[in-house]
Amino acid sequence: MKKRWPDFLRLHAKPGLWALIGLAILLAACAPAVQTAPPKDTITPFPTSTATASLTPTASNTPTTNPTPTLTPPPTPAVLAGAGDISICGQEGDDQTAALLKTAMPDAVFTAGDNTNGSGTFEEYITCFDASWGYFRHMIRPAPGNHDYYTEKNAQSYFQYFGEAAGEPGKGYYSWDLGDWHLIALNSNCPNIDGCGPDSPQVQWLREDLQANRDRCVLAYWHHPRWTSGLAGNSFWLQAFWDALYEYGAEIVVSGHDHNYERFAPVGPAGQPDPERGIRQFVVGTGGASQRGFAEPLPFSEVRNSGDFGILLFRLYPDRYEWEFIPVEGGDFRDSGSGQCHKD
User: Fold this and answer.
1) 180: exposed, middle or buried (C-beta count within 10 Å: 0-12, 13-18, 19+)?
2) If you write DSSP's letter for every residue of 233-272 in order, what string do you get?
3) 3-state secondary structure of 115
């Protein structure tokens, strides 16, 4: 049976229109059915935080790098070395101690008097002293001894040989600086320089010099020892030196005259033990002149030795010091230690 088109199409459609209608019907019949997907479940996410960039790392997720510390190198000490009672023509002790100085290579050299143990003539200085310790003449800061006044009351040859390094001629006392330390050379030959009492020109100058250098550690040196267990005996006429140095907080005193080595505990003006503010004294008459022994040891004498030539070396730091007695080749005695400055 033949299919029939609806009447409204058969009756009213034009031939071209029929073609289009037929094509549309054909396409609709061939197209696949469109399926509607069922609605999906709605997923509610967990709450999230918004990350904010930060330039500051946290300990939990970023390693912290500590800055490299700046290392402060330890202070380099100023090195001072020397002795007293040094040369005697015809003897070799001063040649041996001069060899020690060449090995020690100090920044400066002190002498504690009796640089020549003869008569203190200029010829002795040139012939004997200069042949040994003269190698260090440019760096020696001397102090005069009693032998320097044997020939001439004004120690003219002593001042002529050392020149400006010996201080003003006729006085023989002066001061100078080495590193952070203040050093004072005094003249203990008191009858030749208008005395050494509290009102003497030298002690008045000493007090003024100490006042001007209160912020420095202080080492003073001269020839005759204020305290000694040696045969020369204590130099009581130098009490004003000790009083002034103690009052202003000096640390060290070095002397010669007795031909031996002796170290004392720090003491006050009357020789009383004072480990906090006392002055430590060394007798170092070991520069090359013949050695001699001791009498009855003083109560505060800590170390004594006779028979070994040698030099005393100081390492001077800004707030402390170290000492070392170094004997010549073949010597057995040694002494070393350290102490603190009194400055606050």
Assistant:
1) middle
2) ---GGGHHHHHHHHHTT--EEEE-SSSSEEEE--B-TTS-
3) coil
User: What is the distance between the alpha carbons of residues 290 and 47, in angstroms, rounded to a whole number?
Assistant: 99
Domain ranges of the chain: 78-340
CATH 3.60.21.10 fits 78-340, yes or no: yes
Q: How many of the other CB atoms lie within 10 Å of CB of 249?
A: 17
pLDDT score for 153 = 83
pLDDT digits (tens, 9 = 90+) for 235-292: 999 999 999 999 999 999 999 999 999 999 999 999 999 999 999 999 999 999 999 9
For residue 124, give every residue at least 6 positions away whose Cβ sits within 8 Å of its Cβ, in sequence order, or none.
Answer: 87, 89, 116, 118, 157
Q: Are 147 and 124 in contact (CB under 8 A)?
A: no
Amino acid identity of 116? T
The whole-number pLDDT of residue 75 equals 77
pTM over 0.85: no
3-state SS record for 75-112: CCCEEEEEECCCECCCCCHHHHHHHHHHHHCCCEEEEC
Which helix (H) or strand (E) segment is 320 a member of? strand 320-327
pLDDT at residue 225 greater than cutoff 80:
yes
DSSP string, 175-203: EEEETTEEEEE----GGGTT--STTSHHH
Residues forming a β-bridge with 144: none
The pLDDT, as a whole number, for residue 23 is 46
